[in-house]
Predict the 3D structure of the following.
Amino acid sequence: MRTLDDVEDAIRSLAVRGAPAIGVAAALGLVASFAHEAAPSRAAVFAAIARLASARPTAVNLPWAMARLRRVVESASDTPPLLDALAAEAERILSEDVAMCDAIGRHGAALLADGARVLTHCNAGALATAGIGTALAPVYTAVAAGRRVEVMACETRPLLQGSRITAWELDRAGIPVTVCTDSMAASLMRAGRVDLVLVGADRIAANGDVANKIGTYALAVAAKHHGLPFYVAAPSSTIDPHTSDGSAVPIEQRAADEVRRLGDRQLAPAAVAVHNPAFDVTPAALVTAIITDAGIVRPPYHFTR
Ligand code: MRU
């Protein structure tokens, strides 16, 4: 990515996706987009930050990373040059994300007994972050510690991040993974084939409500019904104390053709109405615990600044 258009397109088109990854990519991308300019004006950098911050609305990591860069511009002196200061902050955002993933892995692995059968949704693994992932970090860490863990990956309609990314990632790491359609999850729980649900998050409100990929709420309801723990794993950068509860989270509505079509194949009638929110909100009451880089948080949730 060399221009601001490249960075914005990559984020909007999901070439880079996953809450932590888009925050990191936007920060590094912003710096790259100014790399050809000797001394960009503060006004130009502020405008670019504002543009990237709104490229996708739901994951808070994106405006969070942009706010960090904005503070750098606000407080920058002439030495070091503005771009160097921005690059240093972007690199910090990157390395902090790697460290937060590792910490989530360490805390969350304690919840995975030998032989654990984990159901996950969407992709909250290495390809959604700069590190080893959020929801998948405990899996990787437990496996590295010698425990056996199996993952059931919901395919995650309509863009299939579960089949296309989670299954690929885990298979490549030699971790047993089975893909199921989203609509199979409840019956797998009923059949006793799932021990716990472990998902990521795009934004966690102050009261613990969790916005995550569409379909997550249904998994939380089903887990509650079957008496299974429902865990959310996310870095501090995904916790948004400024959003009081889930009703205030902006939910991205995506193009109808993501549902009407599959690649170049038309599935539904071309003109049929489609509802395609990319995310839903799981009420805090359904969340057994939130695994963060700072530790495991249990209800009642009350996240402050
Ligand atoms: O639309 P995406 O692919 O960017 O969706 C975001 C996600 O990857 C998930 O909702 C994920 O569970 C949380 S981000 C690690």
The longest strand covers residues 149-154.
